[in-house]
């Protein structure tokens, strides 16, 4: 019996040692896990001074100029005058006017007391009118919600259509008060999307815009949405529109983004083969030249940089991609990230992979 | 299949029912014998008891030899002296179809025509024949179409369908009754068991124990199993008799086409589903319009208005006639789909009888107005007949709308009562709006998930349509309670409201448009009730 106990005791010692070792490894891993690829990539990105996902701004594609954010903040606080001054100062710079009108309208779509005060103080002000028209269109899309048609209720669709229909009068009024401004017609493109204007109506609307501003970025972006297969066009119509816009535009207008967006909207492939065709390589090249020639303060420039960073990465030009990432890091509300639920997470994942790949090749 | 063969099959199927019952009884007795031979004590008693219980519905089903006499239904019986022309037509058609004319004619209040016969000796001897003829059917059909409908019914007699159908019907009824008895017995058992469990459960609670969940699944399963056996046989029975029944319909249609003409038969077939749907609509929307105001249409109009509706909506009916039901009414319906019947009739060679007897079949009656009035007395329940009569349809509409409006409780009424703790009135609502608390009040409305999640302008947009409807109703009710509202009666359109001051304005600048604008203003983001108050009767304005 004693012998048996001795044998057991001898066997128990190595078993105990193994258990202790396993426990140590487990505890170590538990308290300070060894970094995996993702963490390593994130560290690489952080070393380059790039921000983690939680510090990315998901409302904007780029920081706003100081006077813009001041005007929006004042409007939210109920003071319309800085907004009025800003739009007056911008004057006939249509790209900027449309962008500022959109920002102010976003705020007015939530609460419009400040806008009502502006309208009451200056009846017939074309700037207030254009913000009013845009805000109603934004409100309509908010009522609809961002879900697919089968997840959108009757009540949401009714509110959407009713509000879009009421926006048409406001759009007409804004256009009448400032006949040279393309912005009201750009707002109407989103009415066209929602109410399903026939293509002929859209063509008419488009000629109103191009006679006023032939190479307006937001106008082209919005119209391209209309021509996409998911709205009122088709893949062929969207590419036709995008290629023509890019070909006709002068360097620096940023319209080389359109073919990239058309590709992005209709590409359902799983791998990067479709993104490496000769056409796509040429499109990215053209966009790089466009970006280089553009006014560095163009309000839409960061949007194209985001898109370029994505496609440069897919074309294995990670160093060039990283260059674009560095220029836009911190604000991520842009294509291609914007369509994902976790916008910042998706952006950071791709950016970190790029940073890691660049560091690996050094 | 000839009549003799059909008779034979009906007989076999009916005998099958008795055979099935006898088989089940034999099985039950066999079980008893087994238990009494080998079992002992309480088990024997229990099994014996259960088998007797199960045997009762089976025996009762076998003994129910008489087919239940169908209720004649409400109607007025008309003699040859009352309606000589109708009787002449009925006799003439019977002669042409080669069968006996009915002994009685009953005018009823539905869209239907049927001939019934009470056969004697299982249908071996002819019995008394009755013709049921719906007055709304007479209203909607031309004389030629009515001839076709009657010829179709006689066609069943010529084919010998009805006499044999006595056997078929007997089998169907008997199986149905046995199934019903088993289910009823099972339901009783479940109810008794539930009561017993509830008593037990109450006792457990009284003793401080947790009550057991009451569960009655499984109770009455034996009864349900027996019912299932009969249901299976019933399905077989129906399926066997169904193709015959449909074949008989086609044959009767051919008889109708021969006697009444191809076109009249096809158009009658098209007309009947349309009349049936129109009559349902008429009863719901017109004849019973005054019920909530406890009022009836003028005498004779309860059924008489149907004719006016039909002539006013002729254009609509043309559209309805072109679309025919392609499906049979139910899996066991004995009639083939109307579309198929019409196709078969229209495929017959033309017989040149297109323009016969285009007058309404109602004009066959000696005094249609008197019949329409008498029919109300025969068909409507006494409670309805005691209601006062409106002078005309317009008065009926006004009374009905006023009664409806005064009783209406919109969601806004409930929200307002909940918010203020006071009875919901229009002046109280206008005060809440003027105090700038409309959107606080709106939060008490029933909201969809999306509306509840929305804020600011989006929230207001979501609730505004409902608020608009409710407020408009409240304003109309206010006018109505002061007898300032008028409704425009129409046989072709839904009733339209006419506000005080309505003249010959167009839709855009009348008081109706002013009301819409005033309601919109009162519900705007920055509400303004001035326009609405100005529209209202003085008593409300300054409240």
UniProtKB/TrEMBL annotation, chain A:
This is DUF4034 domain-containing protein. It comes from the Bacteria. The lineage of its organism: Bacteria, Bacillati, Actinomycetota, Actinomycetes, Kitasatosporales.
From TrEMBL, chain B:
One of its GO terms (molecular function) is metal ion binding. The chain crosses the membrane at residues 12-31, 43-63. GO terms for cellular component: plasma membrane. The keyword Transmembrane helix applies. GO terms for biological process: proteolysis. Keywords: Cell membrane, Hydrolase, Membrane, Metal-binding, Metalloprotease, Protease, Transmembrane, Transmembrane helix, Zinc. It comes from Streptomyces actinomycinicus. It comes from the Bacteria. The keyword Transport does not apply. Residues 82-347 form the Peptidase M48 domain. Its cofactor is Zn(2+). It is found in: Cell membrane. It is a multi-pass membrane protein. This is M48 family metalloprotease.
């Amino acid at each position: 019996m004693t012998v048996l106990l001795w044998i057991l005791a001898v066997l128990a010692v190595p078993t105990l040692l193994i258990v202790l070792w396993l426990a140590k490894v487990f505890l170590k891993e538990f308290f300070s896990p060894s970094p995996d690829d993702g963490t390593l990539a994130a560290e690489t990105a952080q070393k380059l001074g790039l921000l983690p996902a939680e510090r990315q701004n998901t409302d904007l594609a780029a920081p706003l100029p100081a006077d813009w954010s001041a005007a929006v903040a004042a409007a939210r606080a109920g003071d319309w005058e800085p907004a009025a001054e800003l739009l007056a100062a911008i004057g006939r710079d249509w790209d900027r006017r449309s962008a500022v009108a959109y920002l102010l309208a976003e705020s007015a779509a939530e609460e419009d007391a400040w806008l009502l005060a502006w309208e009451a103080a200056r009846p017939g002000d074309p700037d207030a009118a254009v913000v009013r028209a845009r805000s109603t269109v934004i409100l309509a899309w908010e009522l609809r919600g961002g879900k697919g048609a089968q997840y959108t209720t009757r009540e949401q669709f009714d509110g959407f259509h009713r509000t879009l229909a009421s926006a048409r009068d406001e759009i007409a009024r804004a256009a009448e008060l400032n006949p040279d401004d393309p912005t009201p017609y750009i707002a109407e493109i989103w009415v066209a999307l929602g109410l399903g204007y026939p293509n002929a109506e859209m063509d008419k609307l488009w000629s109103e815009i191009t006679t006023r501003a032939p190479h307006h970025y937001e106008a082209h972006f919005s119209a391209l949405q209309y021509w996409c297969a998911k709205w009122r066009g088709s893949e062929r119509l969207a590419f036709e529109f995008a290629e023509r816009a890019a070909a006709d535009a002068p360097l620096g207008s940023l319209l080389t983004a359109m073919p990239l967006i058309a590709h992005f909207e209709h590409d359902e492939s799983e791998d990067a083969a479709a993104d490496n065709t000769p056409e796509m390589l040429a499109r990215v090249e053209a966009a790089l030249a466009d970006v280089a020639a553009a006014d560095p303060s163009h309000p839409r420039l960061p949007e194209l940089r985001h898109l370029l960073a994505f496609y440069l990465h897919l074309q294995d030009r990670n160093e060039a991609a990283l260059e674009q990432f560095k220029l836009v890091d911190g604000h991520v509300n842009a294509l291609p990230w914007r369509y994902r639920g976790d916008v910042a997470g998706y952006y950071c994942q791709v950016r970190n992979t790029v940073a890691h790949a660049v560091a690996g090749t050094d | 299949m000839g009549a003799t063969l059909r008779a034979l099959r009906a007989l076999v199927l009916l005998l099958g029912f008795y055979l099935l019952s006898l088989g089940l009884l034999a099985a039950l007795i066999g079980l008893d014998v087994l238990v009494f031979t080998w079992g002992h004590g309480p088990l024997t008693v229990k099994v014996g008891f259960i088998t007797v219980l199960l045997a009762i519905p089976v025996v009762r089903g076998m003994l129910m030899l008489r087919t239940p006499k169908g209720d004649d239904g409400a109607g007025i019986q008309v003699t040859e002296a009352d309606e000589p022309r109708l009787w002449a037509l009925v006799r003439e058609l019977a002669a042409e179809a080669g069968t006996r004319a009915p002994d009685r004619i009953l005018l009823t209040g539905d869209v239907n025509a049927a001939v019934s016969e009470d056969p004697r000796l299982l249908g071996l001897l002819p019995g008394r024949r009755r013709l049921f003829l719906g007055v709304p059917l007479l209203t909607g059909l031309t004389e030629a179409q009515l001839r076709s409908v009657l010829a179709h019914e006689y066609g069943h007699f010529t084919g010998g369908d009805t006499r044999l159908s006595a056997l078929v019907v007997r089998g169907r009824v008997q199986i149905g009754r046995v199934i019903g008895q088993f289910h009823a017995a099972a339901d009783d058992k479940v109810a008794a068991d539930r009561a017993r469990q509830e008593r037990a459960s109450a006792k457990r609670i009284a003793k401080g124990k947790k009550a057991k969940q009451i569960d009655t699944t499984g109770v009455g399963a034996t009864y349900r199993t027996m019912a299932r056996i009969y249901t299976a046989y019933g399905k077989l029975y129906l399926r066997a008799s169904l193709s015959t029944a449909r074949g008989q319909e086609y044959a009767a249609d051919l008889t109708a086409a021969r006697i009444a003409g191809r076109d009249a038969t096809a158009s009658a077939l098209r007309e009947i589903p349309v009349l049936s749907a129109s009559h349902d609509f008429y009863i719901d929307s017109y004849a019973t319009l005054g019920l909530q105001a406890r009022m009836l249409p003028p005498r004779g109009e309860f059924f008489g208005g149907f004719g006016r509706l039909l002539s006013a909506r002729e254009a609509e009916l043309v559209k309805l006639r072109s679309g025919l039901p392609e499906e049979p009414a139910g899996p066991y319906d004995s009639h083939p789909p109307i579309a198929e019947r019409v196709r078969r009739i229209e495929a017959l060679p033309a017989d040149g009888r297109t323009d016969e007897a285009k007058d309404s079949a109602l004009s066959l009656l000696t005094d249609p107005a008197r019949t329409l009035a008498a029919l109300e007395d025969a068909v409507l329940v006494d409670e309805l007949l005691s209601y006062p009569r409106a002078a005309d349809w317009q008065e009926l509409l006004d009374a009905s709308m006023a009664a409806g409006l005064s009783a209406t409780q919109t969601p806004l009424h409930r929200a307002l009562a909940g918010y203020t703790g006071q009875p919901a009135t229009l002046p109280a609502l206008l005060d809440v709006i003027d105090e700038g608390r409309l959107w606080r009040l709106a939060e008490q409305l029933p909201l969809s998930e999306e509306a509840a999640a929305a804020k600011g302008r989006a929230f207001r947009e979501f609730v505004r349509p409902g608020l608009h409807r409710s407020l408009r109703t409240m304003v109309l009710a206010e006018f109505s309670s002061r007898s300032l509202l008028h409704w425009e009666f129409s046989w072709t359109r839904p009733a339209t409201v006419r506000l005080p001051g309505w003249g010959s304005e167009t839709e855009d600048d009348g008081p109706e448009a002013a009301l819409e604008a005033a309601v919109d203003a009162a519900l705007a983001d920055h509400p303004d009730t001035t326009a609405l108050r100005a529209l209202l009767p003085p008593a409300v304005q300054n409240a």
